[in-house]
Design goal:
48% of the residues lie in helices and 15% in strands. It has two domains: 4-124 and 204-308, Malonyl-Coenzyme A Acyl Carrier Protein, domain 2, CATH 3.40.366; 130-196, Alpha-Beta Plaits. The radius of gyration is 19 Å and the shape is globular. The protein is an alpha/beta fold. The protein has a six-stranded mixed β-sheet with strand order 8-7-2-1-9-10, sandwiched between helices. A four-stranded antiparallel β-sheet has the order 4-5-3-6. The chain contains 14 helices and ten strands.
Length: 311
């Protein structure tokens, strides 16, 4: 029988129309959106289904939107199949989805928390002064050395997402990120600026961490036996330590280590649950050949794939 890592995406996976197909077909998905709408006091469902895109892209909206689509997808798969992951993990924001799916965090409390998280992260750095970029085709240690050489001269720049052996994300002050992009371009290293409004996961997010710490410490966690791999360490956290969510706000996402831990624990199937295919793509570059990698963006195929895992 397959040993499954359930993976939940973070920011950047959103698109206008996400979740609509789920809600058209499944009561459990509609219920998830109704719960989120109730917590937020506005129709998140309408924003996800119809946009406008510029409103969906706002961090304070994008975070609960991705969480809700991910949990709605999980509920559909759980109700329609015998999907039983051995481990759970989420990329950045996705760690909240993983905690909900594993039974450790109440969904409506999670919606409230990620709404507050998005607002705090947006306010941590003045608009227009931060930036992020993906660096493709450069190993992590070389990129860390390059950042250390530039950091301070133009402001802060740090490696904040270790996504795969050949993809990392840098974050920090806009001028410092721009300086790194220029240096790497001279060495023929591909860089892609990200359409984000703040330098997420960098040390510049410390004010957001301080704002969220008391809220997260108040969040009750269920004592389920399901294990979650934490972004902060890239290792299993069982029982789950809420400090993982507090410190991940201004700490790097260790996604390469997360996948390595899952492989080390015997996982041979990697199932992205939520909008988009970002983690599906990263897994294809980081897990052993022969592993099964599935995404849920087309729900009928995802249900079929989940059912096949136990056949």
């Amino acid at each position: 029988m397959a040993k499954i890592l359930a993976m939940f995406p973070g920011q950047g996976s959103q698109y206008v129309g996400m979740g609509k197909d789920l809600c058209d077909k499944f009561d459990v998905a509609r219920n998830a959106f109704a719960e989120a709408d109730e917590v937020l006091g506005f129709r998140l469902s309408t924003l996800c289904f119809d946009g406008p895109e510029e409103e969906l892209l706002l961090t304070a909206n994008q975070q609960p939107a991705i969480l809700t689509v991910s949990v709605a997808t999980w509920r559909v798969l759980a109700s329609e199949t015998d999907l039983n992951p051995a481990l759970f993990a989420g990329h950045s924001l996705g760690e909240y989805s993983a905690l909900v799916a594993s039974g450790k965090l109440d969904f409506m409390r999670a919606v409230e928390l990620v709404r507050l998280r998005g607002q705090a992260m947006q306010k941590a750095v003045p608009e227009g002064t931060g930036a992020m970029a993906a660096v493709i085709g450069m190993d992590a240690e070389s990129l860390l050395e390059t950042c250390r050489a530039v950091d301070g001269e133009f402001g802060t720049v740090e490696v904040v997402n270790f996504n795969s052996p050949q993809q990392q994300i840098i974050s920090g002050h806009k001028d410092a990120v721009g300086a790194i992009i220029k240096v790497l371009a001279e060495g023929k290293v591909r860089c892609a600026p990200l359409p984000v409004s703040a330098p997420f996961h960098s040390s510049l997010m410390a004010p957001a961490r301080e704002k969220m710490a008391p809220k997260l410490k108040e969040a009750p966690l269920g004592p389920t036996e399901h294990s979650v791999i934490a972004n902060l360490t890239g290792k299993l956290s069982q029982p789950y330590d809420i400090d993982n969510l507090i410190r991940q706000i201004d700490s790097p996402v260790l996604w390469t280590d997360t996948l390595s831990t899952a492989v080390g624990e015997g996982c041979d199937t990697f199932f992205e649950i939520g909008p988009g295919k970002v983690l599906f793509g990263l897994a294809r570059k980081a897990v052993p050949k022969g592993s099964k990698i599935i995404h849920s963006d087309a729900i009928e195929k995802a249900i079929e794939g989940a059912r096949s895992l136990n056949s």
